[in-house]
Amino acid sequence: MTARAERLRSLGVVRSGWLVRITVLLIVAVWTIPSLGLLVNSFRSSVDSSSTGWWTSLLSPISTQWTLDNYNRVLTSGGLFDAFINSLIVTIPATIIPITLAAFAAFGFAWLKFRGRSLMFGVLVGLIVVPLQLSLVPLLKIYQSTELTGSFLGIWLAHTGFGLPLAVFLLYNFISQLPQDIFESAYIDGATPFTAFTRLVLPLSVPALASFAIFQFLWVWNDFLVALVFLGTSSDVAVLTIELASIVGSRGEAFHLLTAAAFVSMLIPLIVFLSLQRFFVRGLLAGSVKG
Amino acid sequence: MTEAVQRLNPAPSGPRILRALLLVGVVVAALWVGLRVLRDPNVFSALGPTLSKLGQALVAIVLGVGGIWGLFYAGNVIIESLPGRAAGILRPYLFVIPAVAVVGLYLIYPTVGTVVESFTDVPEGDGPLTNYGQAFTNRDVLIALRNNAIWLLIAPAASVVIGLVFAALADRVRHEATAKSFVFMPLAVSFVGASVIWRFMYAWKPPGQPQIGVLNALWVGAGGVLVNLGLLEEVEPVAWLQHIPWNTLALIAIMVWLQVGFAMVILSAAIKGVPTELTEAARIDGASELQAFFRITVPSIRGSILTVYTTISIAVLKVFDIIFVTTGGNLDTSVVAVRMYQEMFRFRNFGQATTMAVILLIAVLPIMIVNIRNLRRQGVGA
Hints:
The complex is a heterodimer.
Chain A: H1 3-10, H2 18-41, H3 46-51, H4 54-59, H5 69-76, H6 80-111, H7 117-126, H8 133-146, H9 152-175, H10 180-188, H11 193-204, H12 206-222, H13 225-231, H14 240-250, H15 255-275, H16 277-286
Helix pairs in contact in A: 5-15, 6-9, 6-12, 6-14, 9-12, 9-13, 12-16, 14-15
Chain B: H1 2-8, H2 14-39, H3 49-81, H4 84-120, H5 130-135, H6 139-170, H7 176-184, H8 191-201, H9 214-228, H10 246-273, H11 276-284, H12 289-300, H13 302-317, H14 321-326, H15 336-345, H16 350-377
Helix pairs in contact in B: 2-3, 3-4, 4-16, 6-10, 6-13, 7-10, 8-10, 10-13, 11-12, 13-16, 15-16
């Protein structure tokens, strides 16, 4: 029991009765059962999967024929392995590039004086909630005339552009709160702003950088629309979400394969999420303004 | 001190600038060669398919990450090689211009372009409002607009209410953190992944066969009990995603399932921030627990509720993946974003596509204004 709940209870304020507990349990069940079904079904044979509910296997786990076949099939004969690597190729630079640009910019806006500062910052942050649909048609035209469509560089830059406003906002909030003295002493010691930034600001900003990195990583890894428009569906570049959607299109009723493929696509986000939940929550709390 | 000053204002010299330019040249050339290599998927083909793919990944990651740092480093070397005054003026721009330029290219220019195109990309001789006239008389567009309205009405409110109730109740049970992380977990799942999860939940088998979807199993099971009791004639499994108009609700449920965790996290933090003294005082004055919750707790966290509500509203207005993957926008489930995609790629009608985008912008505008006011109140925006 949390300290707070304990305190409330000792005051006689809370009667944590069965109704409360059942409601909590019910919500947890509704929020867990769909994913549980996916996971269980991905280890069942195609016959079982199409003829009985996944819960029957869970109720008789000994007599069920559990199998890794579905994973084997989607990873080897499907394009899912390549899509997995493509997702990594897209996501890692599309996380690092905007963070780098945003950290430089946040430092500039917070600690350097120049003309047009508040105008530029205001416009940048105001763009946080503009739907990216507004960008699609003109960008697609530019991309088609410069052959950026279907290239990794093209999608890195696209994700960078769409992620930057929130990144600058989050990092500005953090970097502008750093104590001024550290910069003064660094400058007296002859540091340029560049070295002050790389040697002082970046190391001190690790918590904020991590929060945004997780945010952006999950957003890019899970993105479908940007990849569909700018990267496309050809197998040498298609990312996991695209591949998964195409399996839905071609094998929509083959739930043994679909569930395995979906789980492959969720593996990395779930690991990132569960291991770095603390940073993620902090980022959510700081950045709950994005659309 | 003199030494420090000298280091702050290094004397400009010819070779320094040359060295700096050389460095820039090397970085740009390396980037150019690297990107060429990346465009050709056969570069590593000698290594076999798996290794070649991994090699490509390695090149891409080194290139993307190293490239951005190389460019900043080279830019700094150039600026520091300039005479003191020029360096002082230009230095701040090295930090902010790359971000501003990328945002200008990817958000500002295209947004303006989209608005302009929605008025100008019309058949010759037609007026500037042609696209809008067409949109608002097209049955499919009107259905998409209606659906967006239904989504907007239900999804944010449902997410906030469930998130708030759960945050408030979880606060008073054992294993709060565990319970919360179960509800929170869908936040890590993509819209496409969630669509697959729920397609499976909604799966339909003909009557008489065992149902493999949880919802139909419950439906047929519960219905069967009623039939046995003589309360119901018969029960048929429901094709949740095909049944107009309930299919839209079935899709909204997916969104709510994804967003409640977000609402819960923010609202839970807000509830814990409400001083216990306030609710205690109300309780001592004889307020019931529900009264204390609705009269003290909820008003105290109004700001957070508004933030969550507006954030989810924006996400809901832009919703695309869920519908595109499950129904493809058929069976009266389309929304503006799906319609826009179809105009772009199926009908190649950029005029209509940009018009759809502008409709989205207009819908988001009031929310934007609320958000900007919120930011101002927090003292952000210089």
